[in-house]
Amino acid sequence: MPSDPVFGSRALFPHLEHRIYVNHASVGPLPTPAMDAMTNVMVQQATHGVSAMVEFHQDVGTTRTVAASLMGVPADNIAVMGSTSAAISAVAASIPWKPGDRIVLFRGEFPANTTPWQQAAARYGLELAWLDADAFRTDQGLAELETVLQAGRVRMVAVSAVQFNTGLRMPVEAMGERAHAHGAAIFVDAIQAVGSTPIDATHLDYMATGGQKWLMGPPGTGLLYASDWSSLEATLAGWLSHEDALAFLWGDAEQLRYDRPIQVGPAALEGGTLNFAGLAGLTAAMRIINAHGVDAIHAHANRWNDLLEPHLLERGFTSVRSAVPEQRSAMLCVRPPKGMHAGAINETLQAAGVCASTPDAHIRFSPSWPNAFSEIDAVVAAISDAVDRLRP
To answer: Tens of pLDDT along 97-113?
Structure first.
């Protein structure tokens, strides 16, 4: 990896076939250091078999340390998970709920941060309170949240740091403060923020992210932060969740016991053998993000979006990007001109070598540090071609 990070350079992505890749909010391309790290783990297992496992387990500590630097939380409070969804589901299943507890959810959210809570509500007799995520473009959102919290019995506020279909950056820090003032906790799905948009976890109880988007790591990797692991029951504990879980494997007699206490901490949810190759790739990818700096990545992506947005407006698109800079993530989401289908426009973009996405009938551009400002002209040309082809 270069010692001096280079913005606007694709040198670490020699295999990327798209001419312009602005789809990091879906899946980020793997940089060569991540690929090399994953290959090394596979070679080590192929060469040494079980003997490689000790080092693999030690390397997980490095993953936590690098993740802690990126997320701004203590390394000992981070669990490595298989995905963001797995992390959310694990917490939703491990809170000691009481019938009648309430969960605040948000319309417009990606379902990964609604479905597990809906399942918990059905299983434990909980109540759901729904608010509109888009209301948080103004103070109305926080006012509505305050009203729900004042009504009582809210146990959890579950929200995404960034809305996937509009790019709206939610005021999760202020939401956490309000939740705590009323005895509630907050869970933040931060997959659309970590690696591209700054987030302060000081007032968050739980925060989850996955490796495959803005972090540009492999799928099947995720991270879960909990400020207080004792707040969770060991519902999903596995064999490695016990204290001295490996004691019976080293040749001593009478060490195979089933009464060893369950650890209080990340092991209570990790529970079994981890995806060591994936975590090695994630660690290498996170090092690159740390080297660039999330603040700088956020600024770079927004400058890229600043350059593109006026051209889209001129061609009849409607931007849903917030006019308030503090509410902006690294995304630029737009609605197509009247009578045009987002999917059809995106097909034209793909044919021109521009990889974007179309969540919830929007066209979403999600650039990151490898994107160069010189790409804008080609994107505008592709957009113009799409509009000319598809104009009713």
So the answer is: 999 999 999 999 999 99
